[in-house]
# Entry
Amino acid sequence: MIQKELCQIISQTEIAEDIFEITVKASLVSQIKAPGQFVHIKVTDALDPLLRRPISISSYNSVKGQLTMIYRKEGKGTTKLSEMKPGMEIDILGPLGNGFPVEEMKIGETVLLVGGGIGVPPLYELSKQLVAKGVKLIHVLGFQTESAVFYEQEFLKNGETYVTTVDGTYGIKGYVTDVIKNLGFDGIYACGPTPMLKALEQLYSNKKMFLSLEERMGCGIGACFACVCKTAEDPSGVSYKKVCSDGPVFRAGEVVI
Amino acid sequence: MNRLNVELPGLNLKNPIMPASGCFGFGREYSQFYDLSVLGAIMIKATTVEPRFGNPTPRVAETDAGMLNAIGLQNPGLEKVLSEELPWLSQFDVPIIANVAGSLEEDYVAVASEISKAANVHALEINISCPNVKTGGIAFGTIPEVAKQLTRKVKEVSKVPVYVKLSPNVTNIVEMARAVEEGGADGLTMINTLVGMRLDLKTGRPILANRTGGLSGPAIKPVAIRMIYEVSQAVSLPIIGMGGVQSAEDVIEYFYAGASAVAVGTANFVDPFVCPTIIEELPVLLEKLGFEHISECKGRSWKEHGKLTHHRA
# Structure
């Protein structure tokens, strides 16, 4: 069930340039069903910014009732959020959407987790759960530049990890696809910019693959029809999926990206 | 004592609070949060004859104290609304106001004729003010004679009272209100969104794929209040007011302006519980302000002082 809760901030750290990790106390973690779900955050009671911010859950602890999110400080809302201190409260609506199906990958299979930029965070909880299950992981994380890189060490604990930067200032120069072409694997989970997801879908259509999409959202619960996309079986017709409530994770080939 | 019940053509409302069309879908999503029977009414998403996908994305952009949307009347079409959405809504004790849209006059007539037969549809809201579709919508809502004609045609076929949703994107809102009154409308709903635009700081291009969109939220409330203030004095039709309503205080302000009921739009996206919260807070606020019943607030902005003092040339 979706809950609306005032959550107290436990900690907030800038873990890379303009990238913040925030942990809050939240009883709504008990409602989380899968990694890859997100929450909708209202950073102020004031009228500006008015709308909530969809932010993905990077990890959670059901026992402690804690939720960790990683976001990029970009606009008015996330700037305000980044200035908030431990002890302060934020209004969280969630958990929302459908996450990555952990059950789709079997013990002994090798699975690629591919993240691009601010698409990396939801893969962390997924990585933890897949490792616990006994799935072999290879992480490929793409960033713009060295100062934007985060969570490399955390992912390394769970398996082989490659980092790419577009400008070559850290790790392998290039895009995630430049690394993936040399790897062997059974399936892919990915989250990141649309061009990255498109490339993966085209190059590895023979693999089991789940993609987390991003779209501008209004309500976050499926009522406003802001974040719709076409379905692959009816690309020019009227059938649709809502990224917020049918997604954000879709099986590759299910929707037009 | 019920301080909130309101009688309007076709609508016997337990309270004057209802979600606005397009901001509540067909109610399913919000039924996860509360019992929809607490609402005064529900204005369902615009229905057209055929299913519509709507506009490309991005469809929304945030603005200062508001948002722009260009959804483009996405809806499952008349047949599905009749066979699936309205029957599903019938489990709740709440009257439905069906928003009717189209590209041509005959589209409106076709939808109005069929949807007004549904048992839980107690009134229609004729959408002559959607700014986000290429044909129809606002094209019917900016020329008084055209709006009047469309109202008349819809009235001829509708089994329930007809409210016309006015666009604020006109030079003379009173003239539009008078035209639809002459066309036989039973009530007005106002205002729809104001046409606006936002540009991306990096690309310089409009954020919305549709380029322009409809501005809603607290930013437009003063415009709505002014228009309702003017229209409520010029016509004898009841008005369901909307535009940036977020609180019980906002509702009272709408009543003062001349509204008889109030719809809540964008605020549902910010707080899914906003409608029941307002409904709970209204009696307390009325008590505080010294009113026994919400109807006493209606038109207070102009009634107590008399019309003439405001209209001296």
